[in-house]
Amino acid sequence: MKLKSLFCLCLALPLMAAANNEAPQNPQNIVSFSAETEKEVPRDLMQVSLYLHEEGNNLKNLNKVIAEKLNKGLTLIKQQPAIEIQSNNRQTQVRYNNKNQKDGWIATAELVLQSKNFSQLSQLIEDLSPLFAIGNIEAALSKEAIVAMEDEMTDSVLAKFQAKATLIQHSLQAKGYRLLDINIDSLNEHYASPMVNHVAMKMAVAEQAAPVQLESGKTRLKAIARGRIELIKE
User: Which residues form the signal peptide (predicted)?
Assistant: First the structure.
């Protein structure tokens, strides 16, 4: 997440001695500083990759087995409207022995599922256990949650910046200050795949004694405001 950069927010912070706004800057009275805010929030999005892997000498039979399992899985998945299919990929490649000679075929398929409903996703993984193995489980903060937090984080970091500016003014016995510039940035998890916080579970679901319990964990959002003020001495 990248919070909006805000420049010259002269109206965001109280300015004293407005008549001095057009006065030339005195480098000795310019102070650069930063303020930051953090908040811990639960990840609300889960993504699971499931895969099929078959090997043999008859490519036609391999593709038939993959297709049958994949179609059965897709039928179950489509019965859950809260679960989205992010990708559906198949691949076939030649298998070689230790003498680098062709001795068969490898057929694979991967489904990537995504949902905010963790209980339904957990149950679906259990239902698919006779067919699929888990490739990876990842959790993240959704784009919607990030957008919802943006204004709150911006307000919070600006309030801290303003409080720090006032503290500097009083500590240095200035009559007031004016804001020269300010930028706001975030140092948060990168929303790329869009998943983060790998929970790597490379195991066959069918081999598990109990259903998979999906837990998303939490992430920390951080916003930093960096800027300069000019102290008004007279």
Answer: 1-17
